[in-house]
Here is the input.
Amino acid sequence: MTVNNEVHHFAGIRHESLIHDYAQLFFLLLFSMLLIMYIRAVVRSNRHYKTWPHFRIACFIIGICCALIAVVGPLANRAMTDFTAHMVSHLLLGMLAPILFCIASPMTLLLRAVSIPLARRFTKILRSRPLSFITHPIVATILNIGGLWLLYGTNLYSLMHSNSLLHLIVHLHVLIAGYVFTISIIYMDSVFHRKSFLYRAIVFIIALAGHGILSKYIYAHPPQGVPLQQAEYGSIIMYYGGDIIDAIIIFILCWQWYKSARPRIREPFEKSNRMGEQQADSV
Amino acid sequence: MEGEEAMKTDLENNQERTEKKNMRTFASRNFWSGFLFGIGLVAFIDETFFHQLLRWHHFYDKSTTDIGLISDGLFHAFSWFATIAGLFLLADLRRRNGYWFKRWMAGLLLGAGGFQLYDGIIQHKLMRIHQIRYVDNVVTYDIIWNIIAALILLFGIYLAIVTRDKYLTEAKANDR
Here is the structure.
């Protein structure tokens, strides 16, 4: 049965290879455009505000590279037939790139780069009901981890390989859901609703558990059309790769707590210190 | 002058009172910081030595029950978070000059022993997520595993009682 599925798998790819090339071109254009927009926004922001931190720019560039490696070129091509490669590309696209984008804070940058009336309009959109609903930690978790369960738990994975449009949508979803999830847990960029650290920590642990359980589920129940050996390797990559990348999120979340929980007694001292710095700046 | 001195003693009294308060809060914070790190530490040792280096534990065992898969996922995620969060809590205690090694160790040993015992009896045996080692007489491994876990746990309980007595008596002495 597995063999039959594989044959089908390959035939589907040949048939759709042209559209697949178009999908790669689409991603290439999309990510190049995002990068150009980001750099332009940095230039505009630097005219009016303090210099935009270089490490944020670096994070955005590396994030774009991760996303590009995942969906364009040799790894993406191999991912069509090799589940292990598919898993590596998904870790890059759905986990590592979103964290880097989150650190790069494109929303804050956007608000700084555009005119004030436009920034106000953007703020309104960001504050709107639908967007604050989607960026709620629990909703974002369901979108992200639930989406993965749909992808690997049903026959969506094999359907995705015989339908290029579906392939495109799934990959866009993985990237966007990963990003929304990341910004719902760590508040680095402009976020307009706040949940406590404990709340986010608990939601995050459940999400991480959902990810780990799904990895082992894939090990035992390979998605339709995936050979056993590849499913096992893919599963292990998903499990440990997810842990390593999620350690970054845990670290940032804890570090932000550590900063916000600093002893109150020191605060007046620090404030006066900061005032001093500001005065020094203005002089 | 006398008024100033009286104020000073008032301040000192206040400081003592806050220190007393701090000791109580820090006692539980030390405990929970150690507890979280203890769970994380044991899970880390389990993962590094028994899964990766010795390769005794298997990534997946076909006899794993569904609840075993869920339990493993939840504990794995929680312990991973706890390792990092526990150390940040420790850093916070150091920053506040509230680090109390014995109390922290009590938490660590309780977390470590408790988790190892849970892993050894419930996860390995009842939920059958994997065995300690895939050999004939795995019972020997099970017994040693769980006895070590129980010893760690008992030592943790002992330290917890000793440190609890200490801060309770000191708090009482301060009340007088």
Q: What stands out?
A: The CA atoms of residues 109 and 156 of chain B lie 5 Å apart. The helical segments of chain B are 2-53, 66-95, 101-126, 138-175.
